[in-house]
Design goal:
Length: 245
């Protein structure tokens, strides 16, 4: 199990972008009942919090106790430390299982086996992630250089699966075609800085080099940051399928 986010769990909870309601609305259209949901690799509980508005119970798991410490709290969200591949949940328990920006870390064969066990017949597995952000051409060019050259050597190999939008990942369920979605947020330069600091590659860089590369990079963006709030867009990719046990 890879835990690459505990050390920056507070930054992760503060600066990670939130997913659009349109994505959830599309997913919910294909859910038969809204009794029980499992948000796997919940991180800061962002998805669990939204699910809790619509489901009677939400079970949210993660391998990082520190991540869960910073997670959103709600009376019908039940957090627990657990790997994705082996849980203590009952057979045929969940109407919906979600995995946001995390499937690339899993032993997917074992996870899919667990999904089949804990999902209700005809339940839904909704997996998604978001790609590299874009802001404006001059900023995007510098961002890509920071991503590939500065912290590039420090990305885990699983990051390539995100870059290719999970296209090479097997998904042995009856897939539902999804429209295109994106995250669109107005960010300050400080918010961008916090987001870059939450990258696992940035933390690895700091641990090995002994200094933080983000402040000097942010300084190089100041002259290109045209207004206090800039529109930031993250394209979303999905794999959504019906679990027929």
């Amino acid at each position: 199990m890879k835990d690459l986010f505990s050390s920056q769990s507070k930054a992760y909870a503060t600066f990670r972008p939130t997913y659009p309601e349109e994505l959830y609305d599309f997913i919910f259209q294909h859910v038969r009942n809204k009794a029980d949901a499992w948000d796997c690799a919940t991180g800061n509980g962002q998805v669990a919090q939204y699910l809790a508005r619509h489901f009677d119970k939400v079970h949210a798991t993660d391998i990082s106790r520190k991540q869960l410490y910073h997670a959103f709290r709600k009376e019908n969200i039940f957090y627990s430390v657990s790997p994705a591949e082996e849980t203590s949940f009952q057979n045929n328990q969940f109407d919906l299982i979600t995995v946001a920006q995390a499937l690339h870390w899993f032993d997917r064969k074992a996870f899919y086996r667990e999904v089949r066990r804990v999902s209700k017949p005809g339940g839904l597995l909704a997996v998604w992630g978001y790609g590299f952000l874009y802001i404006a051409p001059n900023i995007d060019k510098l961002m890509m250089r920071f991503y590939k050259e500065t912290v590039g050597p420090y990305w885990d190999g699983a990051r390539r699966l995100v870059e290719e939008e999970y296209r090479s990942i097997s998904f042995p369920f009856e897939q539902i075609k999804s429209p295109a979605f994106s995250i669109k947020v107005p960010w300050t330069l400080n918010q961008l800085s916090g987001y870059l600091s939450s990258w696992s590659a940035t933390q690895k860089f700091i641990n090995e080099k002994g200094y933080d590369p983000v402040p000097s990079f942010i300084e190089s963006l100041v002259k290109h940051w045209a207004q206090p709030l800039m529109a930031v867009t993250f394209p979303i990719f999905t794999k959504i399928g019906i679990v027929n046990n």
